Structures are given as structure tokens and as C-alpha cells.
């Protein structure tokens, strides 16, 4: 986790285990384009499995998509206390979404291992960035905007959630969250094109 801040404002960059697991489940279930925002595939990409027999008697692929999207909407709301608990092997908090519950039961072990590996890799990358001072770009964006406006930044918090995504871009989740490919920061111009407008909006 990386923090940048000043009087009244704070920007945090981190990854999220819950979102990693949800995206793995989405991709292994072949739910292309599911959820709002519809993020790109995870990277490295996982092979989709056929869940027809697993979910046929409980609504099939349509129910699985609807139930995953409802879960994703809860995760996007950014209120951890509202998120259903990931409690193997039964996943009882997903009892109202049986197709998703069955897919979680089938793939949670692989999803958890994948998420832990990605989190470890992210933490190593974040340490390297800290050493190189890469996070300073965010403070500079705020300071430049303050100079433009001739005033201090308003009080704000921005949480940037970095994920291993195939598409190098960011998605703004109002009012104060960005989901971003974890390698977007490596492309200075592309990073600015997505992040600078959000910082200017908040400052």
C-alpha cells in the first residue's frame, strides 16, 4: 500500500483480494463484459470452464451472470461491511445466489491461490516504486492543480485500486475510487490521461 497526502487530502494506492477473487471467478466462468464497470480480462488470462452442468438446474448461465453482477455491484459500493463473506466450503452467505455459490465452491481454491500470488507480486512492485519514488507523480498532480486554482486542495480521499488487467487503463468509480491496471503507472502519458482529470475534479 502506498500513501500520498497533504493538508486535508489523501491518495492511497493498493490492490484488493476481494476484487482479485471476483475477477478470477468472472473470467473462469466466461462472463465476458459482466459488471459495471466492465473491466478487461485479468492478466495472465485464465481459461474459462464450462459450468452448464453445474448451474443448469439453478438458472444456468443467465442466473450466474446476474448473480455475479450483483456481487460485483456490492464490491464496487466500497462498503466492506455489506460484502458477503467468502467462507469456504459452503459459502453460506451466497445461499441466495446458488449458481454463483456453486461456482465459488468449484473454483475458490484456485482463485485464492491466484489472488495471493498476484498480491505478493503487487507488493514487490510497490516496494520497488517506493524506492524509485514513482508515487511522487500523484503529489505533483495535486500541487500543480493547486497552483492553477490559486488555492489549497479541498479535503478529499482518492483510493486507487490496482489490478492485474490486460487492458492498460483506469475506470473511475464515483465518488472517490479508481480501478486501474497495475502497470498503467509505467506509461506516464497514459497514466496522466486517466488520473489527472480525476485529481483535477477532486482538488
Task: Outline the structure in words.
With 203 residues, the protein is of the alpha/beta class. The protein has helices at 17-28, 52-55, 60-76, 98-132, 136-149, 188-202; strands at 2-6, 9-14, 156-163, 170-173, 177-181. The chain folds into two domains: 2-13 and 128-202, 2-Layer Sandwich (Zincin-like), CATH 3.30.2010; 17-125, no CATH class. Helices cover 48% and strands 14% of the residues. The protein has a five-stranded mixed sheet with strand order 1-2-3-5-4. A hairpin with a 2-residue loop joins strand 1 (2-6) and strand 2.
Mean pLDDT over all positions:
93
Structural class: alpha/beta
Ranges where pLDDT stays below 50 over 5 or more residues in a row are none
The number of domains is 2
Instruction: Give the strand content.
Output: 5-15%
How many DSSP E strands? 5
Radius of gyration: 19 Å
Q: Kindly, what is the distance between the CA atoms of the first and last residues, rounded to a whole number of angstroms?
A: 22 Å
Shape: elongated
In short:
With 203 residues, this protein is of the alpha/beta class.
Write the topology of this structure:
Layout: E1 2-6, E2 9-14, H1 17-28, H2 52-55, H3 60-76, H4 98-132, H5 136-149, E3 156-163, E4 170-173, E5 177-181, H6 188-202
Parallel strand pairs: 2-3, 3-5
Antiparallel strand pairs: 1-2, 4-5
Main attributes of the structure:
single chain; alpha/beta; 2 domains; Zincin-like
Amino acid at each position: 500500500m502506498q500513501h500520498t497526502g497533504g493538508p486535508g487530502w489523501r491518495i492511497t494506492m493498493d490492490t484488493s483480494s476481494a476484487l482479485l477473487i471476483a475477477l478470477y471467478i468472472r473470467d473462469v466462468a466466461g462472463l465476458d463484459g459482466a459488471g459495471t464497470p466492465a473491466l478487461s480480462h485479468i492478466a495472465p488470462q485464465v481459461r474459462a470452464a464450462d459450468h452448464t452442468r453445474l448451474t443448469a438446474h439453478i438458472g444456468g448461465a443467465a442466473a450466474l451472470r446476474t448473480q455475479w453482477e450483483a456481487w460485483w455491484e456490492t464490491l464496487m459500493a466500497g462498503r466492506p461491511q455489506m460484502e458477503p463473506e467468502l467462507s469456504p466450503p459452503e459459502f453460506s452467505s451466497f445461499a441466495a445466489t446458488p449458481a454463483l455459490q456453486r461456482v465459488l465452491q468449484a473454483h475458490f481454491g484456485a482463485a485464492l491461490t491466484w489472488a495471493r500470488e498476484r498480491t505478493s507480486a503487487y507488493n514487490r512492485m510497490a516496494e520497488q516504486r517506493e524506492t524509485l519514488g514513482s508515487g511522487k507523480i500523484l503529489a505533483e498532480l495535486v500541487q500543480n492543480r493547486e497552483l492553477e486554482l490559486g488555492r489549497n486542495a479541498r479535503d478529499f480521499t482518492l483510493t486507487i485500486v490496482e489490478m492485474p488487467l490486460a487492458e492498460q487503463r483506469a475506470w473511475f468509480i464515483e465518488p472517490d475510487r479508481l480501478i486501474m491496471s497495475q502497470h498503467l503507472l509505467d506509461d506516464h502519458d497514459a497514466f496522466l490521461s486517466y488520473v489527472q482529470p480525476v485529481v483535477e475534479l477532486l482538488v
